[in-house]
């Protein structure tokens, strides 16, 4: 298998906190709904209700992870890959667990591609890394 791409992104936790705090026209809520899938939103709400800084870190990590995944694929975010195509969840152990939309899963299977992610957050940053490998490394989408 060949390396298809590496991706990383970094986001300042305070930046995400500022977005969440924007009450005008529900900007914070819209950001959560745009970035997180339904399963991720449930987890975000639970973490944020229990301890707001953990909720912010969860949201920031997922935002940066999806940005980094788009970089690893070489597509960027847009028509070919959206925030809603990927859920970054956790196993009971805390390790990241990935769920792909049907469209993204089909594309990755066609390439016999695998994706692996490492998530880190330490105030003031969230910093995920992606490693993608597969048999086909051209014209991904």
| Structural class by secondary-structure content | alpha+beta
Distance between the termini: 19 Å
Q: Give the name of the CATH superfamily.
A: 4'-phosphopantetheinyl transferase domain
In the CATH classification, which architecture applies? Alpha-Beta Complex
Explain the overall architecture.
The chain has 141 residues and is α+β, with helices and mostly antiparallel strands. The chain has a single domain (2-134), classed as 4'-phosphopantetheinyl transferase domain (Ribosomal Protein L22, Chain A). It is 44% helix and 24% strand. The protein has 5 helices and 8 strands, in the order ββααααββαββββ. The protein has a 3-stranded antiparallel beta sheet with strand order 1-8-5. It has a 3-stranded antiparallel beta sheet with strand order 2-7-6. It is globular and about 45 Å long.
């Amino acid at each position: 298998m060949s390396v298809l791409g590496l991706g990383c992104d970094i986001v300042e936790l305070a930046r995400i906190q500022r977005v969440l705090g924007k009450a005008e026209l529900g900007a914070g809520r819209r950001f959560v709904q745009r970035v997180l899938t339904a399963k991720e939103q449930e987890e975000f709400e639970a973490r944020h209700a229990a301890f707001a800084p953990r909720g912010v870190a969860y949201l920031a990590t997922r935002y940066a992870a999806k940005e980094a995944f788009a970089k690893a694929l070489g597509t960027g975010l847009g028509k070919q890959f959206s925030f809603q195509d990927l859920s970054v969840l956790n196993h009971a152990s805390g390790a990241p667990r990935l769920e792909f939309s049907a469209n993204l899963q089909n594309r990755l299977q066609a390439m016999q591609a695998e994706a692996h992610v490492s998530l880190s957050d330490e105030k003031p940053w969230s910093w995920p890394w992606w490693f993608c490998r597969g048999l086909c490394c051209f014209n991904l989408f």
